[in-house]
Amino acid sequence: MLKLNESQLVKMAVTGKIANPVRFSTFELDHEGRGHAVPSVGGIVYNVKVGDPAFGWRGDHIEPGVSLVFDEEKRNGGPNRAFNFLSCIGNEITVTTGAAKGAKGVVTGIHGGVEHVIADFEQKTLEKLIGDEKFLIRALGQGLQIQECPLVFCYNLDPALLKKMRVKIKAGGGLEVPVTHKIPSAIMGSGIGHPDPGSGDYDITTQDAKTVRRLGLETLRFGDFVAITDADNTYGRHYYEGAVTIAIVSHSDSFISGHGPGLTTLLSSKGGKIKPVIDARANLGKVLGIGRFRS
C-alpha cells in the first residue's frame, strides 16, 4: 500500500468549456517540405479514443475525445493556465449544462501550446454534446508525494490513479513502474526545456522512421504509460543521465519537424529511483476501463 500525502492535498473545482477546433495555416509543411491540410487540435472527436493507436490518423496532434479550455482568447492568461495546471490525469469530470448534464468523464491528457485539457466520455455522451456545454473538474493531484520515495516527483496525477497503476515500492526508496515503452531522451523534441512539468506535454520526434521501428514506437497508443530514459522533469524538462521520467501519451503523432506523440509528465527522478518495467497492460484505458476498453 502506497503511503501518499492525500490528507494534505487541496481539491478544487475548476470549470471549462469545449475548445473549438483550431486551424493554424492553409497548409502546414512537414519535415520533408510537403504541405498538408488535415484536422488538428480541439473540438469533439467521435472516433479517436484512449487505447487507439497514436499513429496512422489523417490528422496532426489529434486529441482523443473532448478538448477543454477555460479561455480560448487568453490561453496564456492566469485562469486558463490554472485550469491546465490543476486538472490532473484521472480526475473526474462532470458535464454541468446541456443535454448531457450529469454525465461523467475522466481527464486523460494535457496538451501544451494550445493549453488544452483532454477528456474521455462515453460515446452516448459525445453524441449529445454540441460545443457550448460547461464542465466541472474536481481537480486533485498537484503537490502529490509518495512518502516512501522522496526523490520521486509527482505531477499531473490523481492519487487514486497512482494507486491503480500497479507500481511497487523497492528497497532504498525506489519505485517500480509498469510501462509499455522505453523512449530515449535523445528523441524528445517540442516542449523540451520548458520550466513547468506540471503543465502541458512534450513530443517524441518521429521523423526518423528507422528509429521509430527500432524502438517499436509505431505501437504507441493514447493513454500508454511510458518511460523516458535519461530525462529529468523534476523542475523542468531536460536531459540528465540516469534520470527517468514516467509520462502518458496525450495526443497523436505529427508530421511537423520536432513533433510527434505528446507525453504529459507524471513521475520523475534524477536519482535513479524509478525502475520502468515493460507491461503491455500499462494503459490508462485498461486501468480505468475507459476509451476502447469500456465494457
Q: How would you describe the overall organization of this protein?
A:
With 295 residues, the protein is mainly β. It folds into 2 domains: 134 residues, Thrombin, subunit H (Beta Barrel), CATH 2.40.10; 141 residues, tm1086 (SG structure) domain (tm1086 (SG structure) fold), CATH 2.102.30. 11% of the residues lie in helices and 32% in strands. Strands 1-5-8-7-6-9 form a 6-stranded antiparallel beta barrel. Strands 10, 13, 14, 15, 16 and 17 form a 6-stranded mixed sheet that branches. Strands 11-12-18 form a 3-stranded mixed sheet, with no helix packed on it. Strand 2 and strand 3 form a beta hairpin. The longest helix has 9 residues.
Average of the residue pLDDT scores: 96
Q: What proportion of the residues is helical, as a percent range?
A: 10-25%
CATH homology superfamily of the largest domain: tm1086 (SG structure) domain
Principal-axis shape equals: globular
Can you identify the CATH class of the largest domain?
Mainly Beta
SS-derived structural category: mainly beta
SSE pattern: EEEEEHEEEHEEHEEEEHEEEEH
The gyration radius over C-alpha positions equals: 18 Å
Strand content: 25-35%
DSSP E strands, number? 18
Strands across the major sheet, in which order?
A: 1-5-8-7-6-9
CATH topology label of the largest domain: tm1086 (SG structure) fold
Total of DSSP H or I helical runs spanning 4+ residues: 5
**From the coordinates shown, what is the CATH architecture of the largest domain?**
3-layer Sandwich
User: Main sheet, how many strands, which sense, barrel?
Assistant: 6 strands, antiparallel, barrel
- What are the segments in which pLDDT stays under 50 over at least 5 consecutive residues? none
